[in-house]
Write a structure and sequence with these properties.
Blueprint (H helix, E strand, L loop, with lengths): L8 H15 L16 E5 H10 L4 E3 L9 E9 L6 E14 L2 E13 L13 E7 H7 L8 H9 L4 E10 L4 E2 L20 E6 L11 E8 L5 E11 L8 E4 L9 E5 L10 E8 L5 E9 L4 E9 L5 E10 L1
Parallel strand pairs: 2-9
Antiparallel strand pairs: 1-3, 3-6, 4-5, 4-7, 7-8, 7-9, 10-11, 10-17, 11-12, 12-13, 13-14, 14-15, 15-16, 16-17
C-alpha cells in the first residue's frame, strides 16, 4: 500500500479549494462553503492505484459471465483536522429507472460502516477502513435477482454504462453530514491524496466468452508507431482442419506473401485478460522465421497481434496487425 502523509496538507488543500470557490464555484470539486474544512473520505488501496496510477477502472465486472462471487472492495481513509469526528459512513447504490426515454435515479442504502470498524495502522496516517460489497447484493438493490437473464445483462450494458455508481455519506459526531452530493467531480482532484471515495463506480465491462467462431474472412490493418494505420491487403482466417492443436487457426496470406502461419487461441470464458493468442516460432516458405503473440476480442470478432519476422540474413522486422471481420 502507498502511505500518505497528509496532516499538514489538509489545510493547504482546503485553502486552495476555497480560493477556487471564491472565483468560480464550478472549479471547486468540494463545496468548501458547505463542508467542514478538510473533512473527506479519501480513496486508498487497489482502486486508487487502478484509477489514478494505471488509468483503468477501479473495479469491474463482466455482465455476460457473472459468477456470483464477485465483490466490490475499496480502502478509504478519513481525512479531517479531528479524526475522532466521524460517527459512521452510509453507502448507497444508485438505482436507475428509464421511463418513456427519461432516466431517473434513486439512492438505495446497502451498508452502514460504523467508525468502530476504522483502524489505525502504519499503512496510513489517519483512520481507515476496508469495505467489501458482494456484486449479488448490489444487483439486488437495483432490482436484478437473476443475473443470467438476457434482459438484465442488456440493462447492465446499456442503462448502467459505464457501470453501477455507489455513493457514501459521512455522518459526523456533532449530528452534521458530509453528503456525496458535495463532491462535484472526482476527476478535478489534482492530488491522489484527496481522491474521494464518496463517489465510486463498479464498471460493467462488455466481455464475451471464447467461441469457435473465427473461421471467416478478415480485413487486415497494419498499425504503426506513429498511430497511423494502413489497410493494405485482405487475409483469410480458417480453422486448422488437421486438428493438430486444439483451438489452432491458420492465418493465410501473411503480409500479402501467400504464406500461412498457425496461431493458437487461449480459451477464456471468464477473464478478458486471458483472451490471448500465441504464434509459436515457425518457418515461412522463403526460409524466414515468424513468431508472435496477441489477443482477441470475442465480442467484436477482432484479433490484434504482434509479429516478429527474422529473414535469412537475420534481419528482424516487427509488425502490429489487427484483423477485422470483412
Amino acid at each position: 500500500m502507498r502511505k500518505f502523509s497528509i496532516y499538514s496538507s489538509i489545510l493547504v488543500a482546503a485553502l486552495g479549494a476555497f480560493t477556487f470557490s471564491c472565483t468560480d464555484e464550478s472549479l471547486d470539486p468540494l463545496k468548501t462553503k458547505e463542508v467542514k474544512k478538510g473533512t473527506i473520505l479519501a480513496l486508498r488501496g487497489t482502486q486508487l492505484e487502478n484509477i489514478y496510477f494505471e488509468g483503468i477502472p477501479g473495479a469491474e465486472f463482466f455482465p455476460r459471465v457473472i459468477q456470483g462471487t464477485e465483490v466490490f472492495s475499496f480502502d478509504a481513509e478519513y481525512l479531517s483536522e479531528d479524526p475522532e469526528t466521524l460517527a459512521s459512513v452510509d453507502i448507497f447504490v444508485i438505482k436507475k429507472t428509464k421511463t418513456a426515454g427519461v432516466v431517473t435515479t434513486e439512492r438505495v442504502p446497502i451498508k452502514t460502516v460504523p467508525f468502530s470498524e476504522f483502524k489505525k495502522t502504519d499503512d496510513y496516517d489517519r483512520p481507515w477502513v476496508s469495505v467489501s460489497l458482494k456484486l449479488t447484493d448490489i444487483l439486488a438493490k437495483i432490482g436484478i435477482t437473476d443475473y443470467t437473464d438476457p434482459a438484465a445483462i442488456d440493462q447492465l450494458l446499456t442503462l448502467y454504462q459505464p457501470g453501477i455508481n455507489l455513493e457514501s455519506d459521512l455522518n459526523l459526531t456533532d449530528g452534521s453530514k458530509v453528503g456525496a452530493e458535495l463532491i462535484l467531480a472526482s476527476g478535478l482532484f489534482d492530488s491522489d491524496q484527496f481522491y474521494p471515495a464518496q463517489k465510486l463506480t463498479f464498471n460493467a465491462t462488455e466481455f464475451c466468452p471464447y467461441a469457435e467462431s473465427w473461421e471467416t474472412e478478415y480485413k487486415t490493418v497494419e498499425l504503426y508507431e506513429s498511430g497511423d494505420v494502413s489497410e493494405f491487403y485482405d487475409s483469410e482466417v480458417s480453422l486448422d482442419v488437421d486438428g493438430a492443436t486444439e483451438d489452432e487457426y491458420v492465418i493465410s496470406n501473411i503480409h500479402d506473401t501467400g504464406y500461412s502461419i498457425s496461431a493458437v487461441f487461449e480459451v477464456s470464458t471468464t477473464n478478458p485478460s486471458q483472451q490471448s493468442i500465441t504464434v509459436a516460432e515457425q518457418v515461412l516458405g522463403d526460409g524466414s522465421t515468424v513468431s508472435g503473440e496477441g489477443s482477441y476480442d470475442q465480442c467484436s470478432g477482432t484479433i490484434s497481434i504482434h509479429i516478429l519476422i527474422v529473414d535469412a540474413n537475420e534481419e528482424e522486422t516487427e509488425y502490429d496487425w489487427q484483423f477485422e471481420p470483412k
